[in-house]
Write a structure and sequence with these properties.
Blueprint (H helix, E strand, L loop, with lengths): L3 E4 L2 E4 L4 E7 L7 E8 L6 E6 L6 E3 L7 E6 L4 E6 L8 E9 L15 E2 L3 E6 L1
Parallel strand pairs: 2-11
Antiparallel strand pairs: 1-3, 3-8, 4-5, 4-9, 5-6, 7-8, 9-10, 9-11
Length: 127
């Protein structure tokens, strides 16, 4: 069973920055595609960013393009989400997700495509 532990959430003012981290127990971590999702109260869980196993290919939701950056360090079994220029509408619980890439060099953007999920970390952006 793959365990994912997110950290780095918190309360920040609009325009501020946060860096989320997700430590994974997956072995080998480099065989897993990773994603960051978020869920605001009363809304469905949505993809924020995704990355392939090597880190060479990434995806961003339109709402975060140019502000967020997803990256991974396979030596540290960790994926990151750097969030800049935060807006109140970014307020949500952020979840890290993982799935075995099965050798495919691609990212995944749909909730049902991921098998493993973290417990989530709250991000609150005040106006």
């Amino acid at each position: 069973q793959v365990q994912l532990v997110e950290s780095g959430g918190g309360l920040v003012q609009a325009g501020g920055t946060l860096r989320l981290s997700c430590a994974a127990s997956a072995r080998p971590f480099s065989s897993y595609a990773m994603g960051w999702f978020r869920q605001a109260p009363g809304k469905e869980r949505e993809v924020v960013a995704a990355i392939n196993w090597s880190g060479g290919t990434t995806y961003y939701a339109e709402s975060v393009k140019g502000r967020f950056t997803i990256s991974r360090d396979n030596a540290k079994n960790t994926v990151y989400l750097q969030m800049n220029s935060l807006k109140p509408e970014d307020t949500a619980v952020y979840y890290c997700a993982a799935r075995d890439a099965n050798g495919y060099n691609r990212y995944y953007t749909r909730v049902y495509e991921y098998k493993h999920w973290g417990q989530g970390t709250q991000v609150t952006v005040s106006s």
